[in-house]
């Protein structure tokens, strides 16, 4: 679908202007949005706008890293939009010319629709030209990252406040899922931050000086998002390390318990094995109270070893 919005010289907004009417002198600048275009509609990038084949290839092929390229008469941006439900990255390609803006995306992008509706409802707020529309699209894309990050923070806070009786293994499954989501965010936000840095310091993009503050604001938002993502990653790392430490401590406790039990039963097993031999000449076997004497010796050995282990502090490990 090809959607157009044009601003006339007297700042009047025209919607769904045919492409062949966009060259009308009364039109000050225009925005063409190719949303989920068909193969035939995508050809207008070449046939109508005459964009460079490499830029068109970047639009039509695999997901590109956020970047900024310069061509004669226009600049080409690759932006990333995050699906809030799946956290899948969707590419948004933007061509910025002197008096036009072209956006290209294969899937619906809520950010672009939001900016488009704002432009149609309040055109006076967008009278600063094409670069301001580009800023509005970028700003909305970045603003839509925040709810995703806030939702992840809420999940982490919920994990921290859960009842300790809950299964730690289940909690860790949630933590590892969150770490995976944070990795997806990091792979998107960091390249977008680098892209904004290039845009701010670019002399070929022809952003009016008074509008650079707007792009600086987006850059500040991306720095904040980066800090939030890194802080959340550190929190999940701490949770993971605590879980591993707890597991190691629990394993040590179990091994200590088994060691104590084994240490107590080893001498008892020796005594039982000694008097379980079938030799004829073992005087103790014919003692009248021999059985009770051996049981007493075994009991004393057990009590003595338990007291010795307790004195050494072995039982404190289990607490």
Automatic annotation (TrEMBL):
It comes from the Bacteria. GO terms for molecular function: cobalt ion binding; cobalt ion transmembrane transporter activity; magnesium ion binding; magnesium ion transmembrane transporter activity. The keyword Ion transport applies. It is found in: Cell membrane; Membrane. The keyword Transmembrane helix applies. The chain crosses the membrane at residues 254-277, 289-309. Coiled coil: none annotated. Keywords: Cell membrane, Ion transport, Magnesium, Membrane, Transmembrane, Transmembrane helix, Transport. It is a multi-pass membrane protein. Gene3D superfamilies: CorA soluble domain-like (3.30.460.20), Magnesium transport protein CorA, transmembrane region (1.20.58.340). One of its GO terms (cellular component) is plasma membrane. Belongs to the CorA metal ion transporter (MIT) (TC 1.A.35) family. PANTHER family: CORA FAMILY METAL ION TRANSPORTER (EUROFUNG). Mediates influx of magnesium ions. NCBIfam families: corA. This is Magnesium transport protein CorA.
């Amino acid at each position: 679908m090809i959607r157009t919005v044009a601003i006339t010289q007297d700042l009047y907004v025209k919607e769904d202007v045919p492409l062949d009417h966009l060259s009308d002198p009364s039109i000050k600048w225009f925005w063409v949005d190719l949303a989920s275009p068909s193969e035939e509609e995508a050809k207008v990038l070449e046939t109508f706008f005459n964009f460079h084949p490499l830029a068109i290839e970047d639009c039509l092929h695999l997901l590109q890293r956020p970047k900024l390229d310069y061509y004669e008469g226009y600049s080409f941006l690759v932006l990333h939009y995050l699906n809030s439900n799946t956290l899948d990255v969707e590419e948004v390609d933007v061509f910025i010319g002197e008096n036009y803006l072209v956006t290209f995306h294969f899937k619906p992008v809520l950010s672009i629709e939001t900016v488009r509706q704002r432009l149609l409802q309040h055109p006076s707020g967008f009278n600063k030209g094409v670069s301001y529309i580009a800023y509005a699209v970028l700003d909305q894309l970045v603003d839509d990252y925040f709810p995703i990050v806030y939702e992840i923070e809420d999940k982490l806070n919920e994990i921290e406040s859960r009842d300790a009786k809950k299964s730690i293994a289940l909690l860790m499954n949630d933590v590892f899922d969150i770490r995976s989501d944070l990795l997806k965010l990091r792979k998107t936000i960091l390249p977008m931050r680098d892209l904004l840095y290039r845009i701010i310091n670019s002399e070929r993009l022809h952003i009016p000086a008074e509008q650079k503050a707007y792009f600086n604001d987006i850059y500040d938002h991306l720095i904040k998002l980066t800090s939030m993502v890194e802080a959340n990653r550190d929190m999940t790392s701490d949770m993971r390390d605590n879980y591993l430490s707890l597991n190691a401590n629990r394993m040590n406790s179990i091994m200590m318990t088994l060691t104590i039990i084994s240490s107590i039963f080893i001498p008892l097993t020796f005594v039982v094995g000694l008097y379980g031999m079938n030799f004829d000449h073992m005087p103790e076997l014919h003692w009248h109270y021999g059985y009770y004497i051996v049981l007493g010796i075994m009991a004393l050995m057990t009590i003595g070893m338990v007291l010795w282990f307790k004195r050494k502090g072995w039982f404190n490990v289990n607490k």
